[in-house]
Amino acid sequence: MQACAIRFIVARRAVCGPVFSLKALLWLAVSMLLLPVSTSSAASGDEVLAMMDRSSTRAKDQFFEYELINTQAGREPKVMALKVHIKGERRMTEFLAPGDMKGTKVLVRARSELYIYLPAYNKVRRVASHSTKGGFLGTTYSNEDISTITFAEVYSGSLLSEDESQWVVEAKPREGNKAIYGKLRFTIRKDYVQPSEIQYFNAKGEHIKTETRTEYSCQGDICNAGVMKMVDHSRGDAATEFQRRQWEVNTGIEDSLFSKRNLQP
Fold first, then answer.
1. What distances in angstroms separate CA 56 from CA 120, 203, 245, one per listed residue?
2. Helix (H) or strand (E) holding 73
């Protein structure tokens, strides 16, 4: 016997298939519209980290001037100033103040390629990004913090939570990548696709540092925090705060700026 197609008709009987009233059909259509949307398309932790990296490196180049304020219990705050040129994952930093640090330069060419020039010694030396967990040049930022520009290649991300305004991603070092942290926990704003907070944990799982990034602003689709603050809980909550004083985007910085030759006067 040949199978017949099911026909839905408004009648007492159907030639083939079940009987449906008009009211039942309307109820079925509305119910289908109200079914929850599948979340299978939601971004994974790795995808969120990759989006954050793209957002932070979207500009062709950037120039910043910052005032730094170091605070530690029982000591007077120390104020420093510096300027930074950034292109891709390369960064050239030069200290402008105080006098004993003026002229000090730091060149980051890659996460594993960090150089420093100290005027007092008139010498350039290479520093391993993971060589010390101590503060970098008197700040609460480590060598690794200074040299890590992007995160997705170094850390594997797991999405812990998500709402309309932010993602929370836990990131652990990928196999074969040296890192001084056991894991990081990012709270990432969706409007800027940039972090509002990064929590740093050691290999024992202890929460040792917290970085906050606030006062975001944009030039076109390039967005950056106006204030960045790193608090080191292992040093009595000593803190370093970067306050942005100047910011320029896509100024045509030459690649030659990021050479070892440019570290020395």
1. 34, 27, 19
2. none
Architecture of the domain made up of 45-263: Clam (2.50)
Burial class (CB in 10 A: 0-12, 13-18, 19+), 201: middle
Plot region of 25 (φ>0 → left; ψ -120 to 50 → alpha; else → beta): alpha
CA angle 77/232/131 to nearest 5° reads 105
DSSP 43: P
Tell me which residue has tokens 């896509």.
Answer: 250
Model confidence, pTM: 0.82
pLDDT digits (tens, 9 = 90+) for 122-151: 999 998 766 555 678 889 999 899 889 899
Q: What is the pLDDT of residues 209-240, one digit of tens each?
A: 999 999 999 999 999 999 999 999 999 999 99
Contacts of 26 (CB under 8 A, 6+ apart): none
